[in-house]
Amino acid sequence: MATKLKPHKDRLFPPDQSLREVAARLYTEIKGLPIISPHGHTDPRWFAENTAFANAHELLVAPDHYLLRMLYSHGISMTDLGIAPSQSGKVVTPRAAWRTFARHFYLFRGTPSAMWLNHVFAEVFGIEVCLDGSTADLYFDTINEALEQAEFRPRALFKAFNIEVLATTESPLDQLKHHRSLQSSNWDGRIITTYRPDAVINPDIPSFSKNLSRFGEMTGEDVFTWEGYLNAHRRRRRDFAALGATATDHSHASALTATLTPHESDKLFNKILSGNFCSEESTLFQAQMLTEMARMSLDDGLVMQLHPGVYRNHNPRLFEQYGPDKGADIPLRTGYVHELKPLLDLFGNDPRLSLILFTLDESTYSRELAPLAGHYPCLKLGPAWWFHDSPEGMMRFREQATESAGFYNTVGFNDDTRAFFSIPARHDAARRIDAAFLARLVCEHRLDEDEALQVATDLTYHLPKQAYRLDRLDSQDAVIGD
Questions:
Q1: Where in the chain is the domain with CATH 1.10.2020.10?
Q2: Is the pLDDT at 1 greater than 70, yes or no?
Q3: Coil, strand, or helix at residue 90?
Q4: Quick one: which of 51, 6, 67 has its CA closest to 417?
Q5: Which CATH architecture has domain 154-479?
Q6: Alpha carbon 108 to its chain's center
Q7: CA-CA distance, 199 to 206, in Å (whole number)?
């Protein structure tokens, strides 16, 4: 007989009764607030076309690198998980892949993946038994039948999930046709784009030269000159802003920044264009481009996000066979104090710049990031990210960052997900963890409960809107901290 599935109402709250009661009261007040999702990777096509999702496997397993990496670590092949190789090869049916996933779902016990998925299974699809090999077909059929219904179309779920605004992320080479379609439609859901220029900033990408040519065609600029290249970025940033973008997003190997002169920048750019450059020159070019992006933000007001410190596609064999985003990305040690100083020397005191920092190196929270954000007006701390987007990771972030940066130098929560159905689960977990952390401060008499409620409300709703400049049309954000 299958085990009953019923997520506990007090999950993620402290075991101590007095703490748990305070956490539950705080959570009750914030759980129904609208979801602000200012950074993520969902597909705008879903909302522009509003067609039904295909099936349980393609919706929940195939795109989820958290699931793929764990299953692969136990010797389960990508083809058995329904992932097609780059070269032609055998691919199992979605049902067979789902059965493999279901038989091994126990591997996720104690992980955030299991917590998020059980929330989706119970709260979204109304399933009442746990997932395992014996219930695989029940799950597959129940989810597929639901996906055929109108209330499970993307736009209907956007409303059902109580999402107020959702940001996607696109390359400068994207035509943004889905965002244009949404803008011209009569649907009132707010979906905005984010400028992610890695494809034309990272010269180590094999297609970099080809990408630059396309970049020039799209902008009408001579991108093979330094000034033309910068002008192309300015044009595309304006295009993105016209479609609602309020932010840029930058994924670099490090947080290194540079302050080269225009002549030095031009000389380095020509070296990059020649293809005859070393790794140090590639790093320096990308460091200079972070500074150039910050300079552009002073003019156009786009918030800048920096996500450094990931060794992407660490498993070359897997990458060659199946491509990127299959769970082979590994955190790196990173630094911020010395790396960001060139940029901060130029712009750190300028209120026109807003730079949100993320890390996968938790050792930098209290040593570097919180003190930096606790001093420079331009800096804010993004939430626990990627490998640390977990109950423990979110709690460690609050414990290590709050003493130096406070709450109001952070930006609340963002889900940073490709998995649309996981958005309510992720935000619910963040709200519970913040309630649990604040409950401890209340019970230690470091905050009054009414203060804790205001902080919880700000972290959930007001701070992400303010940090990502989503509040310009919403006067109610004036109540932050009141």
A1: 53-150
A2: no
A3: coil
A4: 67
A5: Alpha-Beta Barrel (3.20)
A6: 21
A7: 10
Report the interhelical angle of 112-119 vs 423-443 (nearest 10°).
Answer: 110
Token pair for 311: 């060794």
Nearest-angstrom CA–CA distance, 140 and 346? 55
Name the pairing type of β-strands 379-381 and 355-357: parallel
Let me know if domain 53-150 sits in CATH 1.10.2020.10.
yes
Relative orientation angle of helices 449-457 and 423-443, to the nearest 10 degrees: 160
- Asked whether the beta carbons of 406 and 374 are under 8 A apart, the reply is yes
How confident is the model over 206-233, as a mean pLDDT? 98
| Whole-number Cα distances in Å, 129 to 101, 110, 122, 152 | 16, 18, 9, 21
Tokens of 258: 């540079």
Task: Give, to the nearest 10 degrees, the angle between helix 423-443 and helix 17-30.
Answer: 130
- With contact defined as beta carbons under 8 Å apart, do 356 and 304 qualify? yes
Residue 476: pLDDT above 70? no
Q: Return the bridge partners of 303, or none.
A: 247
Secondary structure (DSSP) of 252-301: -SS-------HHHHHHHHHHHHHT---HHHHHHHHHHHHHHHHHHHHHH-
Single-letter code of the amino acid located at 124: V
Q: Which of 35-46 are b and which e, b meaning 16 or more Cβ less than 10 Å from the residue's Cβ?
A: bbbbbbbbebbb
- What single letter denotes the amino acid at residue 153? R
Start-to-end CA distance of the chain, whole Å, equals 52
User: Would you say 167 and 248 are in contact if contact means Cβ atoms under 8 Å apart?
Assistant: no
Give the C-alpha separation, 323 to 85, whole Å: 8
Task: Give the per-residue pLDDT at 477.
Answer: 46
pLDDT for 323-362, tens place per residue?
A: 998 999 999 999 999 999 999 999 999 999 999 999 999 9
- Cα 380 off chain centre by: 16
- Residue 87 pLDDT: 74
CA-to-CA distance for 229 and 222, rounded, in angstroms? 7
The candidate with the shortest Cα–Cα distance to 199, out of 231, 169, 242, is 169
DSSP, collapsed to helix, strand or coil, labels residue 305 as strand
- 466 within 8 A of 407, measured Cβ to Cβ: no
